[in-house]
């Protein structure tokens, strides 16, 4: 009974960890709600006016969500600096309450708040606090006479936020990283489950099963990137950080490759890598596995065993049964006990062995040395390889990046744009309402947060307006249900705030919905609720979004095409960099920081994916352009997968007994690198005359058999990835309008 209870708790923990990596959304929601509840409780004991209750609650929310640093010490400094900034903002607002003077101060405050982003997380946080607290002053209609009480409520809110942040719901970098590692394991297990469903899916279920594998692969990659961003603060030294980085990368690549091998085994011919990366791409034609039922049952059993190995890798369970499962799966790497089956199916078993090896490496890196008493020779060899790789880890230095200056600096440009847009919003907002014009300014401000092009601002404005419209309907319903029950309204406000923070990273529309519904309750508490007020909220939101788009389009504009082209050029440059460095090392060149380069490529691709959202949004009228953008991003993800795999293989070169440098690889891959550079040059200058060149397969350039490579030969695997990368790069040239020429004579 007790074991069953532990099993249920473990499954629940894994499910929560996978849905909310690092529990970052849960922590943010609980911390914010807790700070607001504590502030309200203290203010209620002091029997203050409801206006101060609302002001204290909003100030507590601002003081909590504005702080983004990862180290607790840095958070404490920013929070301490934020309090005088908040008090100065609200005090100046009260003193300069005259219409013109107040508007001028608000515009100056907006410029300074946005410009402060150039100083990193602390500058961003202090700017947010200054702006949002001034907004609190406007919302509650404070006056000079009420200023002392208002400042007291704000100070209390900051103290409550500090107590929740540092004592009640602390989140140290080490603890967050530990939770992210748990989430990585949980999502890895979910991906293996999706691959198991792919194995058993019938022809009618194949598209759904493949989509689940795509989603699982993307979510695993997302968690790996989150871990990458927390390694420096969450590990004791650089060597430990690089060890975790390598093991996470190994596990991610092995899992992604296992999915491709399964898809190939189910397909009539070798599966195209693009199938795994292009959303909505149809699954290849499949049939029943042409293997004995015994081999199919063994494959299903081993995938289930791999999932068990992943889930129990971090549980401290190292019993004999688990060791037996691990040893059996690792044996496939050395061709031990391979079932009688076609080569493609045997490749899947070998892929399971590689995944088991990556799980072993992940467990050693995260949990320390393990019991080796039950090791088989195959497991011992895997441990020796891992130990040799770990010993070869060395820190590297990051290259300095050129810093833009003047109006070319994104923060300066954004500050000017937001200032102009906010000025327009103030003028237009006052024409709609002399009392609640600030909603237009708030919307204009928000649509510029975390956006860098006119298209992104347009999409964000649309989402905010959509969420606001539905939120108004919800606000009407909730206000009618609550009536004048103050504490019931505050309880619902807390629920809505938690929902707002929990859904914010997932859907901006949902977040806007919860914000607007919450505001309907706050208006009820302030006795200013009416249907007209909520309709005005929609009008001001639409006006603010329009002002933001106009400012972005006319003042120092960054067009979506220009932004995506710049990011596309960055992705291509980093792709060429990773490919050339990996092939150079595989050819016998000096060792390089390949995993760092690979993660730089992944980050550049993530930036491009975000920037193309205006082009791929469902409401865009340019359907052909949307399909092209999705296709290009999917091709780049395919290229990144093969480049990452080459880099990971190259990093094994100094220590892996079965990998030897092959000088011929450099010449064979030179065409691919040149083609990537040619496409990058064409993206940067549409008049560039260079062409992408095709030619014989890379395997034939090395005098190898162009047929299906054997999995056990590392050189053949490298050739396979180089060939797929070469094909994807040539495929990338066509949608980007780069001419393709035949082989040079």
From TrEMBL:
Region Disordered: start-end pairs: 366-409
InterPro entries per the UniProt record, alphabetical: Memb_transporter_dom
Membrane topology note: Multi-pass membrane protein
Signal peptide: none
Transmembrane segments: 21-44, 50-67, 74-94, 100-116, 123-141, 147-171, 414-432, 438-458, 465-481, 487-504, 511-529, 541-558
Compositional bias annotation for Acidic residues: 386-401
Domain Integral membrane bound transporter: residue ranges: 425-550
Subcellular location(s) of the protein: Cell membrane
Keyword Transmembrane tagged: yes
The keyword Cell membrane belongs to this UniProt entry's keyword annotation: yes
Family, per entry: Belongs to the YccS/YhfK family.
Annotated protein name in UniProt: Membrane protein
């Amino acid at each position: 009974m007790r074991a069953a209870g532990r099993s249920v708790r473990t499954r629940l923990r894994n499910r929560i960890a996978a849905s909310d990596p690092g529990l970052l959304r849960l922590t943010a929601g609980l911390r914010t709600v807790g700070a607001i509840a504590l502030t309200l409780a203290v203010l209620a004991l002091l029997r203050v006016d409801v206006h101060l209750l609302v002001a204290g609650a909003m100030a507590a929310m601002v003081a909590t969500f504005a702080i983004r640093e990862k180290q607790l010490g840095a958070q404490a400094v920013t929070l301490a600096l934020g309090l005088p900034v908040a008090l100065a903002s609200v005090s100046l607002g009260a003193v300069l309450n005259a219409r013109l003077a107040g508007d001028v101060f608000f515009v100056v405050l907006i410029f300074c708040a946005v410009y402060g982003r150039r100083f990193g997380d602390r500058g961003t946080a202090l700017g947010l606090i200054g702006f949002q607290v001034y907004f609190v002053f406007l919302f509650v209609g404070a006056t000079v006479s009420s200023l002392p009480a208002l400042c007291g409520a704000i100070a209390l809110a900051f103290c409550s936020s500090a107590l929740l942040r540092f004592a009640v719901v602390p989140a140290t970098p080490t603890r967050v990283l530990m939770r992210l590692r748990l989430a990585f394991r949980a999502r890895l297990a979910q991906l293996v489950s999706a691959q198991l469903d792919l194995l058993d899916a019938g022809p009618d279920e194949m598209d759904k099963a493949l989509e689940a594998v795509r989603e699982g692969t993307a979510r695993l990659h997302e968690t790996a990137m989150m871990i990458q961003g927390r390694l420096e603060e969450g590990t004791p030294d650089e060597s430990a950080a690089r060890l975790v980085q390598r093991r996470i990368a190994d596990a991610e690549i092995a899992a992604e490759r296992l999915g491709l091998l399964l898809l190939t085994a189910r397909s009539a011919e070798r599966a195209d890598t693009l199938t795994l990366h292009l959303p909505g791409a149809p699954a290849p034609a499949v049939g029943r596995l042409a293997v004995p039922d015994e081999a199919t049952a063994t494959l299903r059993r081993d995938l289930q065993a791999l999932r068990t190995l992943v889930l129990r890798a971090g549980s401290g369970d190292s019993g004999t049964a688990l060791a037996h499962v691990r040893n059996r799966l690792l044996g496939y790497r050395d061709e031990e006990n391979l079932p009688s089956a076609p080569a493609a199916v045997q490749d899947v078993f070998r892929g399971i062995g590689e995944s088991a090896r990556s799980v072993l490496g992940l467990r050693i890196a995260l949990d320390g040395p393990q019991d080796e008493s039950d090791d088989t020779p195959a497991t011992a060899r895997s441990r020796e390889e891992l130990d040799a790789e770990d010993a070869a880890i060395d820190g590297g230095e990051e290259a300095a990046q050129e810093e833009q200056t003047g109006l070319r600096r994104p923060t300066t440009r954004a500050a000017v744009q937001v200032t102009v847009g906010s000025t327009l919003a103030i003028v237009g907002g006052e024409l709609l309402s002399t009392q609640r014009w600030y909603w237009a300014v708030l919307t204009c401000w928000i649509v510029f947060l975390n956006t860098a092009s006119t298209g992104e601002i347009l999409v964000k404005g649309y989402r905010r307006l959509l969420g606001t419209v539905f939120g108004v309907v919800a606000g009407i319903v909730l206000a009618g249900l609550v009536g004048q029950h103050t504490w019931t309204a505050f309880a619902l406000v807390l629920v809505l705030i938690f929902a707002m923070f929990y859904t914010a990273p997932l859907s901006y529309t949902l977040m806007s919905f919860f914000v607007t519904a919450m505001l309907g309750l706050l208006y009820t508490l302030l006795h200013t609720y009416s249907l007209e007020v909520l309709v005005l909220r929609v009008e001001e939101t639409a006006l603010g979004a329009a002002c933001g788009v106009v400012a972005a389009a006319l003042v120092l504009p960054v067009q979506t095409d220009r932004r995506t082209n710049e990011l596309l050029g960055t992705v291509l440059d980093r792709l060429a960099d990773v490919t050339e460095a990996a092939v150079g090392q595989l050819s016998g060149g000096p060792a390089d920081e390949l995993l760092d380069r690979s993660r730089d490529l992944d980050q550049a691709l993530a930036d491009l994916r975000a920037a193309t959202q205006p082009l791929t949004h469902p409401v865009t009228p340019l359907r052909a352009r949307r399909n092209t953008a999705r296709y290009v991003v999917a091709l780049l993800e395919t290229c990144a997968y093969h480049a990452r795999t080459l880099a990971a293989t190259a990093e094994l070169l100094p220590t892996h007994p079965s990998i030897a440098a092959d000088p011929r690889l450099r010449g064979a891959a030179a065409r691919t690198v040149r083609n990537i550079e040619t496409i990058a040059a064409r993206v940067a200058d549409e008049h560039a005359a260079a062409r992408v060149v095709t030619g014989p397969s890379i395997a034939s350039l090395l005098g190898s058999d162009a047929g299906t490579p054997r999995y056990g030969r590392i050189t053949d695997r490298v050739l396979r990835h180089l060939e797929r990368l070469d094909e994807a790069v040539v495929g990338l040239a066509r949608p980007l309008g780069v001419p393709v020429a035949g082989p040079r004579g």
